[in-house]
Amino acid sequence: MKAKLTLHKEFSIGEVDKRIYGSFIEHLGRAVYRGIYEPNHPEADELGFRKDVIKLVKEMNVPFVRYPGGNFVSGYNWEDGVGPLDKRPVKMDLAWMTLEPNKIGTNEFAEWAKKAETDVMMALNLGTRGPDEARNFLEYCNFPKGTYWSDLRRSHGVEHPHNFKLWCLGNEMDGPWQIGHKTADEYGRVAAETAKVMKWTDPSIELVACGSSYMRMPTFGKWEETVLDHTYEHVDYLSLHIYFANHENDTPNFLARSLEMDNFIKTVTSICDYVKAKQHSKKQINLSFDEWNVWFHSRNQDEEIEKWIESPPRLEDIYTMEDALAVGTMLITLLKNADRVKIACLAQLVNVIAPIMTEPNGKAWRQSIFYPFMHASQYGRGTVLRCPVSCDTYDSLEYTDVPYLETVAVHNEENDEVTIFAVNRNLNEDMELEADLCGFEDYKLAEHVTIHNKDLKAVNSAAGEKVYPEAQSGGRLDGTKFQTRLPAASWNVLRFVKK
Ligand code: AHR
Q1: DSSP for 3-48?
Q2: 294, 399, 406, 444 — which has fewest CB within 10 A?
Q3: Ligand 1 proximity of 354 Cβ (cutoff 6 Å)
Q4: What is this structure's pTM?
């Protein structure tokens, strides 16, 4: 199979906002307790955080982590998670039917984030709570001193404000499963009033309003329009969430799902611009894709989990080779929409539908999906270039005209590098790729890294890795004309540097 792509130094889609490489940690399953925090583990630091996990988070180069939920946040009282540990209550978490011990809260998580060299995107409870708690919490976190809430923080041993800059106004408020689920009008009103008092409290923050939990929600479209009708002038971003599944074990269809993600982004962008026009606004609302990943492997086993215990293993998907390809197509889709997607979170980070897994009292290890994310986060920074492609297409169960080649290029001007990310969706045939790198006359191929395994169900584990990056040889660059081979069902990173 053959494919051709052309890129040009001057034809750009937009700058990559590094915040598209965010991730997410929720008080859910073993993400926090027995994940990032395991005080009796041999690798635990003085605060009980696992240093081996922090090392892997740093490898992924994650600029911020969304916290503390997720569905969890819609029933969470932030006051339960601050102050003396022996006074913190154990609470019922109605989102996941577990017990929440509140040993880790805002201040501990902020400490962890510093150690992991990342920032925090804070999510607010707009399920059971409203503007009053939100502004108090923001004052607690971001106001320097001399007020009730800021001095309370200082009395808890945190002298300097956290200065969290990104805040989510609730989570998936369109979903009937959400604690305090609302209609679009109910949510739009409370989000607008919460946004107002928050920006009065700290005008430097940015706010994300909840879009739909999924494009297939019955209220999709109308939800976005109504919420923005209420909030347009008060918020900065609208959220999108998507999880891919392969219940039917139909890999060509599974790998085509990124077309739906692309369509989701384009449709929500249009709705944002439609409301902008209706309101005669000069402001542009951008997108926060603050939950995306593959999630389906653990669904059945999670039905069996005992209720009202602390941190049971939940949502522990073990990812395959083909999941790594799906994640690769999702990363490429985010990059292709860099002009409007400014924030994104791989959901989640540790143990819960996560690239990083931990063994209790044992190893921390990298899942298959760890690697495409790490590559994109490392090399996908700069200007995204348009890459017109000509290649064969296929039809699958739900999608038509699916190109066998999914690809994008990013030019990092600072490092004089251009990187092509590519997924060969063809499960049976290698792809002979021809690329014309117009405007990159004096460049050379630095490396071609590929991830492939003939067994699409191959997984990694604490015992070893079956899905990992390998160097591939054979690529030839002659002037600006490049030729190489992309193995069947593979993720590829082609890095070109100035000679
Ligand atoms: O990431 C797992 C869950 O998925 C989150 O709690 C929720 O927001 C979404 O439905």
Answers
A1: EEEEEETT-EEEEPPGGGGEEE--SSTTSTBTTTB-TTSTTB-TTS
A2: 444
A3: no
A4: 0.97
- Tokens 């109605």 — which residue? 94
DSSP strands (E only) in 308-404: 341-347, 356-358, 364-366, 383-385, 389-391, 393-394, 402-403
The CATH architecture annotation of domain 17-379 reads: Alpha-Beta Barrel (3.20)
With a CB cutoff of 8 Å and minimum separation 6, the contacts of 143 are 149, 150, 161, 201, 202
Active-site position among 172, 224, 406, 417: 172
The first and second tokens of residue 131, run together, are 């503007």
Question: What is the fold, at CATH topology level, of the domain defined by 2-9+384-498?
Answer: Immunoglobulin-like (2.60.40)
| Contact (Cβ atoms closer than 8 angstroms) between residue 497 and residue 417 | yes
> Using CA positions, which residue lies closest to atom 8 of ligand 1?
70
Of the candidates 18, 30, 105, 21, the one whose C-alpha atom is nearest the C-alpha of residue 67 is: 105
CA 36 vs CA 40, 59, 454, 461: distances in Å: 12, 15, 33, 18
By the 8 A CB rule, do 422 and 407 touch?
Answer: yes
Tokens of 424: 């060969």
The per-residue pLDDT for range 351-407, each reduced to its tens digit, is: 999 999 999 999 999 999 999 999 999 999 999 999 999 999 999 999 999 999 999
Residue of 23, 26, 295 to test ligand 1 pocket, by largest number of atoms within 8 Å of CB: 26
Give the separation between CA 47 and CA 157, rounded to whole angstroms: 14
Indicate the domain borders of the chain: 2-9+384-498, 17-379
Residues 153-164 pLDDT 10s: 999 999 999 999
